[in-house]
Design brief:
single chain; mainly alpha; 2 domains; two-stranded parallel ribbon; 9 helices; about 65% helix
């Protein structure tokens, strides 16, 4: 911890004594992360912590994970519910109607394969506002395209999901 505080102070001296507006703290293990957070707090340097359970519980991370869950299981109704609501004009009621059209509203129903879910997509898309149908169709097309390796499939999903996440969760600025 002393080494970390010394490096922070050294950084501040090399930057002409100006304090950074915000420092970032990233870590997975408890003790080193807590020591660095404590040091930043003692020196009154505002910081943002990335990692741990709170990182995984963030809504935008859950949405990206929902897309990856759909890549593995097309009948994951919770993942569909989260992703449909990312589209403009789609709230819980419209998402539930689209899920019913996909045949995913009954939790006791047998899981469906991709072909079964994708065959029902045009019916589900009718419940979406016209302004968000093209983006939703893009998501479904990325899910349907299963050629190539897993990394290529994940990248296709990321390319479709990231604009939706950025539109839903504006970047926050910290003082």
């Amino acid at each position: 911890m002393l080494r970390f505080r010394a490096s922070v102070r050294s950084y501040l001296r090399t930057e002409g004594g100006h304090r950074p507006q915000r420092a970032s703290s990233v870590g997975a293990r408890r003790t080193p992360l807590n020591c660095s957070n404590l040091s930043l707090g003692v020196d009154e340097i505002p910081y943002v912590k990335y990692g741990g359970l709170r990182f995984v519980e963030a809504a935008h991370v859950k949405d990206l994970l929902a897309a990856f869950r759909l890549a593995d299981n097309a009948s994951d109704s919770l993942a569909w519910f989260r992703l449909l609501q990312l589209h403009e004009g789609v709230g819980p009621t419209i998402a539930r109607r689209a899920l019913a059209a996909l045949g995913l509203s009954d939790p006791d129903a047998d899981p469906m394969n991709y072909e079964q879910v994708l065959d029902r997509w045009p019916r589900a898309a009718e419940f979406l506002p016209a302004s968000s149908r093209s983006q939703a169709d893009g998501l479904v097309a990325a899910l349907a395209r299963r050629d190539g390796d897993l990394v290529a499939h994940a990248e296709r999903l990321r390319v479709v999901i990231v604009p939706l996440i950025e539109a839903t969760y504006p970047i926050r600025t910290f003082v």
